[in-house]
Amino acid sequence: MSSIQKKIWVLAVVVLLIMATIWISLIYYNQKMQDQYNEILERYLVMNEVTSTSQQMVTALNNYLIDPTSDNYGVIDSNREQIQQMKADVIDLKHAENEFALTNYVNLMDSLIEAADRSLLSHPEGETENARNALTEATHISNYISEMTLTLIDTELKTYDRFYRGIIDQSEEIKQLGIWLLLLITFLLLLFTYWFSLRITQPVEKLTEAAGEISKGRFDLKVEVDSKDEIAFLAKTFDHMRININNLITEIQQKAQLEKELQQSKLLLRESQLRSLQSQINPHFLFNTLNTLSKKAYMEGSEETSDLLVSVAGLLRYNLKHLDKLMTLNDEMKVLHQYMDIQKARYTDRLTFHTSVDESCLDIQIPGLTLQPIVENAVIHAVEPNEDGGVIWFRIIDGEDRVIVEVEDDGPGMPEEKIKQIMAEQLDTTKGHATGIGLSNVVKRLRLFNGFDDVIQIESCFGRGTKVIIHILKERGVVQLDETTNRR
Amino acid sequence: MRKIVIIVTAITSVVLFYFTIDAAVGVFRPDWQLPEESDKEPLSNRIVLITQELDTPFWDKVSSGAREQAEKGGANLEIWGSYGNNQKDFLKQIEIAIYSKVDGIIVQGLDTEEFTELTKVKASSYGIPIITVANDVPMDESLRRTYVGSNQYLAGKLIARQLIVDMGTSGEVVLLLDRRKEYYQEQRLAGIQDFVEGFPNVQIIEAEAGNSREEVMAKTKDLLNKYPNADAFIAVNANFAGDMIEEIERRSKVEPYYIYSFDDDSRSLTLLEQGKLDGIIEQSPKKMGEQSVELMMEWLTNETVPLNLEGYLTDIQMIKAMDVQ
């Protein structure tokens, strides 16, 4: 039997038991009362019967004396018999208060029979006078019996007066008991029902609450129900479901993360493919041509042009060779200088380039072609549009656990929005760059390389210039790098 | 809040439980007062004391004496009787007692034929002993076992002597008697007559009256008219004293008359205290009750057989108005 059903059964049985008890006790009480009433009534009836029978006897005797047939004699006989029987009944009615009167009563009945007998005896012997006298006597006695019956009944009423009053009091008490019982049962049932319903509804409420929490998306709250019925089972199953859903969601989140990363790497791949397509001109041909051009220029006495061409060739080679490799800061610096030489040739006086390099940091490793795009960016935005040219400061500072590289210009500054886009790696900044590598690309590669996001800072003030700061860890975060690799 | 609710609930349930159980105990443990069961043994020594004058001080004393003695002697006594000298009812009571086959009847004597018939024929045919109390009947007419009470003859003599003492040796004395001429009154009369015989100057006038108030008053009026010189009145039937004095009072003052009576009427003592009666004979009703029951028990247990037929006399004494006042 299931447990809630059991509880309901218990409630019903308890109510039933209470009602049955009350019913039985009332029936018992009623029966007792009725018995008492009957007993008392019986007494009156017996006494009354004595009166009527004795009167019948006298009448019968009278009839017999007038008309002495055996029929009439039979009537007398049966009456006598009855009176004898009633004597025994009457003696049973004896109690302490009517003892005397009752003895008299019984003796009166005896006397009546004796008188009747005397009359019957005298009659056949012709002593009519005696028979008549005896009849008169019997009549008197019968009258006395009637009177005494009344007296006895009167006494009975007096004797049982207290008893009747007791009964009346009792019925009053029963009424009171009824009221108290009603109050008590109502109260107890209310209590019991409250407790009982609580035991059913409380778990349901808890379950509802838990369901609400889950529907709101909180899968980490445990569903707890401490009853022992079906609701508890339901709650347990519900909890299982919650745990399962929770696991599934985590799984889905992980998958989504993976997907996202996969997408990104795909994009990167496409970018590099594009780039490789763009640079389909045979680089060796280009190098050789550039070298030839350089020698030619040298031989014609244009040393400056020759150097410029060497720089271009170097930049080009570096670009092709070392894009995906780790280079030292020193290498980067060389490329940067070659690039700056080329740009100086282009902008002559308009471009002023200041460097301040902490030589001790030059051995540190860094992704290839990191610095050049940043400086190039400065040149593009700070020097190129400005008629009077611009100044670019380049600093390498030793900052304890990291090396800080700062590129500062005095250009018109960078809008806030653009900075955000760069930081989010969203902006395509390849446009106008010699190497085809934009600022966003640098940020991305530096982040991957360092293993944390906070690698670049762009400080810009409208009309006064822009300062790009990058951080390179001296000890490369091996762990972070590992993690990053794993995530992929 | 929760605590308060719990406490209130607990108190309520305790109170309800208490009252319910209280009421239930009241209902299911009834204190119905049923009369005591009697042992089924038939009653023995059932004695009935029958008088014509229930609820008079005199007979109340007799009854109480009898009751006390019955209690002491283990007899079952009942007091029956009629009120106000109702003879018919009185005789019926005797008859019922006889037919009820009681073990003994103690009865106030009544000097009538019916009474004699009942006591002599009926009672003896049923074998029931009869003792007369307070008032006697002639011994040979009724088959009474004995008499318990005052010596009425002596009472008459006592009252006559007091009269002579108070009045002197000459004068007219009116004696008011019952028309029924009951035996005890006759004895009183005899006592008075015998005593007065010695004083020739004292003239006795006997008068008879009926039992009703009107008859007594009429008779008194008549007597006062006939004998304006009467000096003294004696109510031989004590019941007459009150009505007689009332009638005398209508006419003149009571004080000049010497009026005497007996104590077996309820008004006697009051009249004596008021000084309207000059003296009464006081009997010993309580003693009568006690002794009659005692003798009856002795008879029933065969301790004293036969009883003294002459009777057992109880004390009498004269009380004068001066003693009371």
UniProtKB/TrEMBL annotation, chain A:
It catalyses: ATP + protein L-histidine = ADP + protein N-phospho-L-histidine. CDD domains: HAMP. Residues 245-275 form a coiled coil. It is found in: Cell membrane. Residues 371-476 form the Histidine kinase domain. Residues 198-250 form the HAMP domain. It is a multi-pass membrane protein. Its main location: membrane. InterPro entries: Bact_2-comp_sensor_kinase (IPR050640), HAMP_dom (IPR003660), HATPase_C_sf (IPR036890), HATPase_dom (IPR003594), His_kinase_dom (IPR005467), Sig_transdc_His_kin_internal (IPR010559). Its EC number is 2.7.13.3. It comes from the Bacteria. GO terms for cellular component: plasma membrane. Keywords: ATP-binding, Cell membrane, Coiled coil, Kinase, Membrane, Nucleotide-binding, Phosphoprotein, Transferase, Transmembrane, Transmembrane helix, Two-component regulatory system. One of its GO terms (molecular function) is phosphorelay sensor kinase activity. SMART domains: HAMP (SM00304), HATPase_c (SM00387). It is an enzyme of class 2 (transferase). The chain crosses the membrane at residues 9-29, 177-196. The keyword Transferase applies. The keyword Membrane applies. This is histidine kinase.
UniProtKB/TrEMBL annotation, chain B:
Gene3D superfamilies: 3.40.50.2300. InterPro entries: Bact_Solute-Bind_Prot2, Peripla_BP_I, SBP_2_dom. One of its GO terms (molecular function) is carbohydrate binding. It comes from the Bacteria. Pfam families: Peripla_BP_4 (PF13407). It is found in: Cell envelope. Residues 47-303 form the Periplasmic binding protein domain. GO terms for cellular component: outer membrane-bounded periplasmic space. Belongs to the bacterial solute-binding protein 2 family. This is Ribose transport system substrate-binding protein. It comes from Oceanobacillus limi. The lineage of its organism: Bacteria, Bacillati, Bacillota, Bacilli, Bacillales.
